[in-house]
Amino acid sequence: MHSDLLDYAQVHGIQTGQKSAPEKLIPPMLERFMATDRGFAKARRESGSAGQIRSGGSE
Fold this sequence. Notes:
The protein is mainly alpha-helical. The chain has a domain at 10-37. It has helices at residues 2-16, 22-36, 38-47. The chain is elongated and about 40 Å long. The two termini are 23 Å apart.
């Protein structure tokens, strides 16, 4: 995965013309993923409020 992230950062830099450290790309990637994850959005809506979703397992 680390190698893929390095490659992703390189391609992103070529496409945008801006160099970005791989670790700086992770938060926006996760934010976009969670914003478009229908299963997550549905579970969040059904729970009634953000931050209240809990599975029965350990965290």
